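[agent] plan:
  1. take the single chain provided in the ticket
  2. run structure prediction with default settings
  3. attach structure tokens to the ticket
  4. add a short note for the reviewer (M.T.)
[agent] executing step 1
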Amino acid sequence: MKTLYLVRHAKSSWEFNLEDHLRPLNQRGIEDATKMGVFIREKISIPQRIVSSDAVRAKSTAILYLKELGIPEERLELDARLYDFTGNKLDTVIKSCDNRIDRLMIFGHNNALTFWVNQYGSKSIDNVSTAAFTAITFDVNDWSAINKGETILYVKPKQLN
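[agent] step 2 finished; step 3 output follows
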């Protein structure tokens, strides 16, 4: 059994004239990522591997989540392939995960995440919200063999207000 946790980066700031890759989180994003980390702490088993896009907003979201989950920041891996908006590279990262890992957590971007959760999950989601958390389980032992899984949790910050 494989479990995948997917997190879309939290709300980012457009306040500064920066290239997209360097945009930071805005205040709402910081609050939402923290609140989501607190919420999922009691809902999930701790991931064995955590990988984030190297974009500032995704990395910052990951760090805030991990803090609330009690996971040291040093466990966070950055992967430039996750700065992906189509889902192709996201698919590659997930399906190439070491099979000794049963619980994988990914921090990434839309539209890749919305495509991915609808392609592989059992619940249709129109748009994965910023800072939203999705958990999908797969009844396989090999990441490269995943196909349709079961969406066991989808929660977005607005549901926690």
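[agent] step 4 note for reviewer: The domain at 2-160 is CATH 3.40.50.1240 (Rossmann fold).
[agent] ticket updated
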